[in-house]
Design a protein that fits this description.
The chain is built from two helices and no strands. The longest helix has 41 residues, at 19-59. Helix 1 runs antiparallel to helix 2. It is an all-alpha fold and 86 residues long. Helices cover 73% and strands 0% of the residues.
Amino acid sequence: MSSLPPPREPAPPHPGPGPKKKEKFREGVRQLNAASLGWNFVTAPLVGGALGYGADWLLGSYPWSMIVGLFLGFVAAFVDLIRSVR
């Protein structure tokens, strides 16, 4: 007759990263979001201006659509800034 060994208890769950690591990660994400805001003030007006330039080329209304596109690009950058501050 063979005797079976007693059943082993399951290992305790891994505690995961500590609170300091989580806070450090969150701070890194905040810094990356803040860094991307600067790029928004460059890219949003450029994209708006390029779309406006394309509309001007199609409609023959140079420079009005490009000016409106630049303005809307700056508005979009400021809206993104306000959203990130909240």
